[in-house]
Amino acid sequence: MSFKLRQLERETRDKSPVPVKRYRLDEKEKEKSDDSSDDSNYEPYILLKERKKEKLVKLGRLGTILQEKEKFKVKSSSEGDSDELDDDFGRKYNVSLLDQHDELKKNAEARKESALEKQLKEEEKILESVAEKRALMGVAELAKGIQYEDPIKTGWRPPRYILALSEKRHQRVRRKYRILVEGDNIIPPIKTFKEMKFPKCILHGLKKKGITKPTPIQMQGLPAVLSGRDMIGIAFTGSGKTLVFVLPIVMFAMEQEKCLPFTQEEGPYGLIICPSRELAKQTYEILRYFGQCFSNAGYPDLRCCLCIGGVSVRDQLDVIKRGVHIMVATPGRLMDMLDKKNVTLDVCRYLCLDEADRMIGIDFEEDIRTIFSYFKGQRQTLLFSATMPKKIQNFARSALVKPVTVNVGRAGAASADVIQEVEYVKQEAKIVHLLDTLTKTPPPVLIFAEKKQDVDAIHEYLLLKNVEAVAIHGGKDQEERSRAVDAFRQGEKDVLVATDVASKGLDFDNIQHVINYDMPKDVENYVHRIGRTGRSGKTGIATTFINKACDESVLLDMKHLLIEAKQKVPPFLAALQSENEKYFDLGEERGCSYCGGLGHRIKDCPKLEAVQNKQASNIGRRDYLANNSADW
């Protein structure tokens, strides 16, 4: 029974329809489903390339890529390489990876050059902003608008056979002796003193001093000065720059005396200005020597006058009252005598600034400008130095008439005859290490220090160690300074300890060794210091003590100076790297255009920063004093 019942239930289950579970859809969803059922509204498949394009458009890069593509198409079609394009993104095929690497390298160099050009433009703006706007001329000349168009004319002419030689020969001589000349109507170089038409007494005097042929600066400089041209002379220390302005002024003064003798209180005809008393005295002695050569040959006497501080004014006035042909002076004493009308520059037609970068720098610029205002007519102006940056040269040209610039080597370069040694010495060990350094060479030896206190301490220490030493600095009176220099020059003392008052222009015979007890604050003073040895073709040694107290920018300048002179660079200096070395390592663009240092650019120049700080402090002080005076 149960079997039949189960069979009946099965039959009825098979005949009944299967229930379907149904859900109610929203009307909006129903409409969407109906729309989706239409095949014509389906979106087509978007290619990967097209999707990338759309993405690039959104990122704003497609326009740039298309422009590059068009440029490349034009270039490749002109070169016949139009089949090198692969796709819309400028990729190439049939080009080796090495060629692609070369092209990428060229593009990188082009970008680097553009960065270099950008930085050079910024530096030009900085140089223009710090350039002196006022001309280096007298106030009266500027006020009246007086401008001299032609140089002073003299009676000297080069020999005819030299003038008849071709310009190619003159250029060949200049290249041989590495003489660089700028200017209009340049006088040809002359290779002997005899061809320069110096009298026999001068030639005999030169031979007596061991000078038989001119140096490169004298070959080009002496003819230019003798012909009456204004000149900027730049050459390394010990190259004979002094004779370039001493011999012509002696000749000119003798010519004036023979034509019309100088009467009482007349003169000077020539004026030489020096930054230090020792340099002025040395130049005065050279003038007296050649004046004596004329006197011994039967020529009239030439009267020279030395006007420096620390010496009795009465003795100087006695010479001036008798009539003076040539005056050698320092700016301070000369300003005082001009102000008191003890000296006039009415007949002065020859002006020379020795160590001109110092003379027209921030120290003496206003004094020199004031001295210029005392001239009553045109003068022949000469500027000489071993270190003269472009900024100083450009500024100096405002006082010159059609100047000739004679440059032997790079301005600010060290002499190749000096062996430069740099030693790392701790500050507390310097004084003890000094004795060991003195034993490197026999005397005479020069020791330079930055501070007066250090000079006195070194001098006292050497005397305690039984070393025959003398010392000079700005704090000592002139009589003591002169006595010390004379004793050292005559060989009575073995060592001279000095500040930078003895670093510029002084000429001592046979200096074997120069020791820098400390590194100076700028590389210009370093060049002048080590230039006291290795003079006139002789070889000398310069030893410099440095440590962590030294300014890094000065050490970088020193490092590049050693590299330029092909000297050994110690590891602690070689490890120093400047940010701009990779961009400014070659060519004329290297170094600072303000101070001439090779290890930095004008943007990082410590000297410019110091000058600007000093000017700012002076402005603030003047404003403060003005306000106080107004209150009173």
List keywords for this structure.
632 residues; alpha/beta; 8-stranded mixed beta sheet; 6-stranded parallel beta sheet; 46% helix; disordered C terminus
Q: What do you see in this structure?
A:
This protein is of the alpha/beta class and 632 residues long. The chain is 46% helix and 11% strand. It has an eight-stranded mixed beta sheet. A six-stranded parallel beta sheet has the order 9-14-13-10-12-11, with helices on both faces. Helix 11 crosses helix 12. The termini are far apart. The model is unreliable at 23-32, 36-40, 80-85, 582-589 and 620-632 (pLDDT under 50).
Rg calculated over all Cα atoms: 40 Å
The rounded distance between the terminal residues' Cα atoms is 141 Å
Principal-axes shape call: globular
The overall pLDDT, averaged over residues, is 80
Q: How much beta, percentage-wise?
A: 5-15%
Number of helices: 24
Could you give the count of β-strands? 14
Structural class by sheet pairing and helices: alpha/beta
Low-pLDDT parts are 23-32, 36-40, 80-85, 582-589, 620-632
What is the spatial order of strands in the main beta sheet? Answer: 1-8-2-7-6-3-5-4
Amount of helix: 40-55%
SSE topology sketch:
Blueprint: H1 2-15, H2 27-36, H3 48-59, H4 62-79, H5 97-130, H6 139-144, H7 160-163, H8 167-176, E1 179-182, H9 200-208, H10 216-226, E2 231-235, H11 241-259, E3 270-273, H12 277-296, E4 304-307, H13 313-321, E5 326-329, H14 331-339, E6 350-354, H15 356-359, H16 365-372, E7 380-385, H17 390-396, E8 404-408, E9 418-424, H18 430-438, E10 445-448, H19 452-464, E11 469-472, H20 478-489, E12 495-498, E13 513-516, H21 523-530, E14 540-546, H22 552-564, H23 571-574, H24 606-631
Parallel strand pairs: 2-7, 2-8, 3-5, 3-6, 4-5, 6-7, 9-14, 10-12, 10-13, 11-12, 13-14
Antiparallel strand pairs: 1-8
